[in-house]
Design goal:
single chain; alpha+beta; NADH Oxidase; about 40% helix; binds flavin mononucleotide
Length: about 220
């Protein structure tokens, strides 16, 4: 008998976590998560993920570099990202998601300083002791490879959840890919797609109770036949 109940519990209760305890995760646990994520499927089994795990003083150094680059307005992502590209229902969902986050943080729409402080927490990895940075080699238009990294990322996140850990995928980290390559000595043959900050979620943090919700499957799925 398949244990679909525990699968459902893990998938449906995983949340983007935006406040972590500083307690480090034992290295055996991190290795176990990485071994799980390695089982993600990929086009022709190319396994194109190049993952950098950053902890300890290097994590602090990286956070400083990211905050510095952000302060200087040095955003230079390897892949474009513009919220203005989201049209129609996708734009509406993005706006609703931003509003729900600021509401739970009790930050008013016109409070630009409060919003900026909330944004900057991305670059301190929301207090997480570890961050996994997802890099990839470049093939063709890179879309298939990015799909493979998405498969890897979700497997990583679900493994964290199943092991009592928590994480948050972050495109925002990739806005400063050149700074990250410089701090970690990564070749520019590899491009960065997103990062995942991870550790133990802070159970007392209200922000971690945010339930982003999902559209009904009827909005996403068309049955034929
Ligand atoms: C690829 C990817 C990148 C994301 N980047 C960020 C980010 O930079 N900062 C952030 O606060 N949330 C980020 N998120 C989290 C999403 O906002 C979150 O997954 C979504 O609102 C659904 O909420 P849930 O993960 O709690 O179900 C990202 C999610 C994904 C999948």
């Amino acid at each position: 008998m398949l244990d679909t109940t525990s699968f459902e519990t893990i998938v449906r209760n995983r949340r983007a976590t935006r406040q972590f305890l500083s307690t480090p995760v034992p290295s055996e646990q991190i290795t176990a998560v990485l071994r799980d994520a390695q089982h993600a499927p990929s086009n022709c089994n190319t396994q194109p993920w190049n993952v950098h795990i950053v902890s300890g003083t290097k994590r602090d150094e990286l956070s400083q570099a990211l905050l510095h680059a952000e302060e200087k307005g040095e955003a230079a992502p390897d892949f474009s990202f513009d919220m203005a590209d989201f049209f129609g229902i996708y734009g509406e969902r993005a706006q609703a998601s931003g509003k729900a986050l600021y509401d739970i943080l009790d930050i008013a729409r016109e409070d630009r300083i409060g919003r900026r402080e909330a944004l900057l927490k991305n670059f301190d990895f929301f207090g997480a002791p570890h961050v996994a940075l997802m890099f990839m080699p470049t093939f063709g238009d890179n879309v298939r490879t990015a799909g493979d990294l998405g498969m890897y990322g979700q497997t990583f996140l679900l493994s964290l959840k199943a092991r009592g850990l928590a994480g948050i995928p972050q495109t925002s980290l990739s806005f400063f890919a050149p700074s990250i390559r410089s701090v970690l000595g990564i070749s520019d043959e590899y491009r960065m797609l997103f990062g995942i900050s991870f550790g133990y979620g802070d159970p007392a943090a209200v922000v971690n109770r945010l339930d982003a919700g999902r559209a009904d499957i009827s909005e996403s799925v068309i049955f034929h036949g």
